[in-house]
Amino acid sequence: MKIALIADEAIDLPEKIIKENGIGLARFKLDFQEIANIPGNIYQKIREAEKLGIPSAVKTSQPSINEFLRLFKEKLQEFESIICVTVSSKISGTYNSALQAKKFLQNEFQNKVHVLDSLNGSAGEGLVALKVLSLIKEGLDIEEIIKKAEISAQKTNLLGIYKDPKWLKLSGRFPTIIPIMMEKIEKMSIKPIFTVKNGKLTIARFKRNIKNLSDSLFEDFEKSTAKFRENGGKIIAGITHADDEEEAEKLKRLILSLKNTEVSFINLTCFPIGGHIGPNSLILAWQEK
Question: pTM for the full model?
């Protein structure tokens, strides 16, 4: 392959896929503060910190310009050009970091780097990255890949749901009124289903009397894809979870019970995304094929 793929950590693809396809990964910066020495993944750390009464605030920041610049230089030694997929520019400054890094390359290399806004994050961004990878493997020229990938990004769907609204408040990334409102509606057995629309995180709808997260996301997925599947279209899905593999696997089984469906991956949601909606949250994304 003459084209390299680089992405930020929010693609949330399994490590096996990352390694097998040589995807360059720009890592977010995490400051664990008082929970650094607690064992386990990030969600296990903050759960245990809560039990111990230790402040579980974790500071996050986007990958730096230098991180992208390092990856660009590294891949350009081996490949003719680069496609860099990032989390939505309306959610994070990561896209801008990649663009700024490109400007620090020598003039003859700048045109070899193409930064693509996924208009999504987590499982949604992961599906966009996999689409780019498949187009590269088809041997298409880079202009055609970018064109098709941009269309794919615009048509990628995502739904997400949290387990407990308290993490919205603890994340510190939402206006105070939002966590307060979510806590009130939680007492009425109502939860919001989040989505990404035109690159922005928003609420798709509110659902009452949710018994478990996987069933709730599946109900919306089944309705949203029914017509396309009935007409013979195939759906490719990705699932990420905030340390609740059981619910993620259940969601996968539900999806695969439908005709013309495929689940490309299940993986842990990166903390810069999952940390805002907390442990046990669940994200489902899909594309029409």
Answer: 0.94
